[in-house]
Amino acid sequence: MTGSRLDTQVIVVGAGPVGLMLAGELRLGGAEVVVLERRPAPTTESRASTLHARTMELLDSRGLLAALGTPPNEPRGHFGGIPLDLTLPSTHPGQWKVPQTRTEELLQDWASGLGADIRRGHELRTLTTGAAAAAHQDADHDGHVEVEAAGPDGTVRVRGRYLVGCDGEESTVRRLLGAEFPGTSARRELLRADVDGITVPNRRFQRLPQGLAIAARRGDGVTRVMVHAFGSTVTARGGDPEFTEVVDAWKRVTGEDISGGTPLWVNSFGDANRLLTRYRHGRVLFAGDAAHQQMPIGGQALNLGLQDAVNLGWKLALRLRGAAGEELLDSYHAERHAVGRRVLGNIAAQALLLLGGPEVEPLRAVLAELVAHEPVRTHLAGMVSGLDIRYDMGHDGSGGRPGGTVGGTAHPLVGARLPHLVLDPGRGPVTAAELLRTGRGLLLDLRGGTPLRVPDGLRDRVAVVAGRSEGGGAVEGADCLLVRPDGYVAWAGATTEGLADALTRWFGVRS
């Protein structure tokens, strides 16, 4: 503390899953972090309940899956309500049903266990940036961000070198900063409720003459219902809908009366579709729904946000250690904005297929035929699951320099996630996911003989692991791979040409 001001390196606003994931990633990278959350306690509302394959792989790379036990796994998902087999090569194919309350609990335990300072009941009121933070080209070591938050014991001032808004669709950070958030407002909505004491048939995206109805009965007897009456538009209301709205819409669409049930939670979500122009504004960055607003179809919104956090955390931590320049932080916007734009595009298409009336039936019929073709299924499943993400890392991952190539072109793995890989470094088999749990990058040397070395100044950022791989087809044509802490391949090659440049680009040098 300095007087009445708390000093830290990163201020994270929002302690939902994205903010907590980011806080853990920052602590793993050695950064000091304070999380400000306006809610006095974790939510008891389990909004999102789906974790996709890529997110499960990332949680595995942080050692977090054991605490989840064995959540229900469903290989079948959907695209706009049209059944879609999500099975693709992965250690965790399909979708995994984990209530958001459990995801938040898991990530809070992890982040706080690593030393994150999580302060609930603190509502952001003001945000100011130091002169050096106003423009990103001036964001040197003297810049700062300062906020005031209303806490249980009065106003708290927190000063940090960076701030990340993870405070959701109605982001206060975004509003205070005046960040451009173009897109479309919601026109249609799904009403949603968890209801106890009703007995209705399970329905999976059932389109009836009057609308769309979804019902799923849980093991505890509670039924989640979702309903949209064709032709209805978003209702202007001050908060969540009343249960009577759900009852009336459900009766109109299905003919069933659920008024005798006990609502445990009622809300609605619309088809708004917005994307920040920039994920980075100098020393203020955004992740999760604060950066992109979309209909939460198929759980993609939560997974998109968690993957934002994993992409940003290690980069920001390296920047704070003086081990990387502004270009590394710029790559967060470049990589995740492109992913966000693509995901919002597929969600907009799905919203049309789901909430459109009889006029979309011909389109649905054509798409259902196309999904039966394996290349189409694979393409859509990769998009929904996040397994097909490939970042633009230049020609070979080292900024466009020669090397790391196969036959004059970039190795197919450069920019993609590292597939499941089991290594035997001489002390027993270990997976690449296990090796990533320190939060460092990996230099995997599969050649045999004298292992590669990294410069002394990079040893705290990149671990060298030499050993044979089991099932080497996944890395055919690459005897060495440089893997970022988020699990994406930054460089691959049959020789070491271009490796030094890739190490400098992604992991910097000791200042």
From TrEMBL:
It holds the Pfam family FAD_binding_3. InterPro entries: FAD-bd, FAD/NAD-bd_sf, RIFMO-like. SUPFAM superfamilies: FAD/NAD(P)-binding domain. GO terms for molecular function: FAD binding; oxidoreductase activity, acting on paired donors, with incorporation or reduction of molecular oxygen, NAD(P)H as one donor, and incorporation of one atom of oxygen. Keywords: FAD, Flavoprotein. Residues 7-344 form the FAD-binding domain. Its cofactor is FAD. This is Oxidoreductase. It comes from Wenjunlia vitaminophila.
